[in-house]
Amino acid sequence: MNIGQVSKATGVSLRMIRHYEGIGLMPPPDRRDNGYRDYPPRSIERLRFIANARDLGFSVDEISALLSLWDDRTRASSEVKAIALDHARDLARKAAALEAMRRTLLELVEGCSGDARPDCPILAGLAAEPVGKSVTDNTRVPN
């Protein structure tokens, strides 16, 4: 199977397939006599695995670890579960941080009349002295 066929079967772009090969998530395929890549059928499963893991927000390192476990048929499922649970906790932290940012932004918006006057509580709030620890830079948090 050539790279175009694999891309069409998986929905993964040619560029991303090449990228995954370059960073070691996909093994380099055999080459035909004409130099074109020749992917085995298992490549489709592996690329779908990678794409699904990316859609769930796993990092490249986490995907690499999961792929190693997937390839190891003697692995304990507890190892896979531990990675998934760690990632779920990380997603919960990020969701809480995003919600805190949303609440802060809505508070700023609530104070803005949105009329033709030049004074703007949103801009003033963005320029204000930080209060607490931020969810984005790990040093401040919104009010």
From TrEMBL:
Q: Which intervals hold domain HTH merR-type?
A: 1-69
Write out the entry's keywords from A to Z.
Answer: Cytoplasm, DNA-binding, Transcription, Transcription regulation
Q: InterPro entries annotated for this entry?
A: CueR, DNA-bd_dom_put_sf, MerR-type_HTH_dom, MerR_fam, Tscrpt_reg_MerR_DNA-bd
Q: Specify the domain of life of the species encoding this protein.
A: Bacteria
Location, primary (coarse class): cytoplasm
State a single Pfam family of this protein. Answer: MerR
- Entry-linked CDD domains: HTH_CueR
Where does it live in the cell?
Answer: Cytoplasm
Q: Entry's Gene3D superfamilies?
A: 1.10.1660.10
UniProt-recorded name of the protein: Cu(I)-responsive transcriptional regulator
For this protein's source organism, the top of the classification is: Bacteria, Pseudomonadati, Pseudomonadota, Alphaproteobacteria, Sphingomonadales
